[in-house]
Amino acid sequence: MGLSLLLIALGYFAGSIPFGVILTRYLAGKDVRASGSGNIGATNVARVAGKKLGAVVLVLDAAKGALPVLLAMRLLPGEYRLHAFVGLAAFLGHVFPIWLRLHGGKGVATAAGVLGVLVPMAALAGLVVFVVLVLIFRVASVGSLAGAVTALGVSFFLGKPVEYPVLGAVLLGLMVFTHRGNIGRLLTRRENKV
């Protein structure tokens, strides 16, 4: 029980590392929260500080979801529910980081990192849909939400331990919540392009 709680806490604190804020401040001299959409994630970092730094933040935000889950799977391999809770904690850490007064990002890259470890083929399918739709529509939120739906569908189809697709459903619901402003702008055709 103690190890499980420690791993969940580790997931949260790893997820809460605000790479977008830290790297944009120290490498570009800007506050990503004060520019563009104000979001701390990779898409806004790319707008504010360039695509290369945005790509670095994307990888790091995915890694902070993937690594705690990998550790949990290594230490307690049969504890599928724990793996899901560690992944959820990492996601919540990104969205509600203690260091930024609970004002974080939207969680797409961190969720992708979590699912990339738990259900790699589902995450890959989601990534393909994300890339294709962003290339077509030039709107990150469209790709993110469609990619999340795709990953969820594929994860249920693959028949992994039920805890993993259930986590995917929870993450999708939370991403709809974090993207509620984007969804409103999409409905009124005012969403920002990448």
Give an overview of the whole structure.
This protein has 194 residues and is an all-alpha fold. It has one domain (2-187). The chain is 75% helix and 0% strand. The protein is built from ten helices and no strands. The chain has helices at 2-15, 19-28, 42-49, 51-75, 80-95, 108-118, 120-137, 140-158, 163-178, 180-187. Helix 6 packs antiparallel against helix 9.
Annotation keywords:
194 residues, mainly alpha, 75% helix, globular
Could you estimate the helical fraction of the residues in percent? over 70%
- Count of discrete domains: 1
The pLDDT mean sits at 95
What is the N-to-C succession of helices and strands? HHHHHHHHHH
Given the helix and strand composition, which structural class is it?
mainly alpha
> What is the overall number of helices?
10
Distance between the termini: 44 Å
The shape is globular
Uncertain runs:
none
Number of DSSP E strands? 0
- Taken as a percent bin, the fraction of beta residues is under 5%
